[in-house]
Amino acid sequence: MSWKPSDPRYHTSRWKRKAKAVLRLRGRICALCGAPATEADHIVPVTPSTPDLAFFSMAGLRPVCGPCNRQRGNAERFASRTSRWRPDGTPTTVKTRGVSSIVSRDYSIKP
To answer: Which of 4, 19, 84, 107 is placed for a possible disulfide with 40 were both Cys, Cβ 3.0 to 4.6 Å?
Structure first.
């Protein structure tokens, strides 16, 4: 199963025009690896709560090749799944991450 962008703005004609403009104005060279660029990438990762002004800003976009865009996106999605913050904004604790408590370990030096 292939991953689909979670933000519906990626499917709009406005985004498609903006992505084409990035490739046309900034060149068709991947900003990450130098291969031929085929996609536009947000320099700073966006979320569904990112305002339209920031989402569609040319200043926040760069040309990239498909493999670099997918690799970077996969890394961001993995990081968000292993985050120390819950979706509601509260921090996870050592126990909820499945890590044993450091306090319970005995680090004393034994002769």
So the answer is: 19
- C-beta of residue 85 within 8 angstroms of C-beta of residue 92: yes
Whole-angstrom distance, CA of residue 45 vs CA of residue 31: 15
Q: How many CB atoms lie within 10 A of CB 95?
A: 9
64, 71 Cβ separation under 8 angstroms: no
Nearest partner of 66 among 89, 36, 25, judged by Cα = 36
Secondary structure E strands in 43-100: 61-64
3-state DSSP call for residue 4? Answer: coil
pTM equals 0.62
